[in-house]
User: Which sequence fits this backbone?
């Protein structure tokens, strides 16, 4: 069985923010969240100058 898909439908790429897909955007938010958490947790342990 063969199903014909219009050409413009196959070329569609969904972007939600800054040209990123939903998965890429969520992973970027997750990475930023981890970086902020690490910075804040190390802020007390090491000096602010070293953390920057």
Assistant:
């Amino acid at each position: 069985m063969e199903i014909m898909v219009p050409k413009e439908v196959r070329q569609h790429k969904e972007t939600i923010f800054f040209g990123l897909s939903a998965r890429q955007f969520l992973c970027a938010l997750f990475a930023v969240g981890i970086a902020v958490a690490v910075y804040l947790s190390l802020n007390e342990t090491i000096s602010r100058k070293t953390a920057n």
In short: Residues 13 and 21 are 8 Å apart (CA to CA). Helices lie at 7-10, 22-45, 48-51. Residues 22-45 form the longest helix (24 residues).
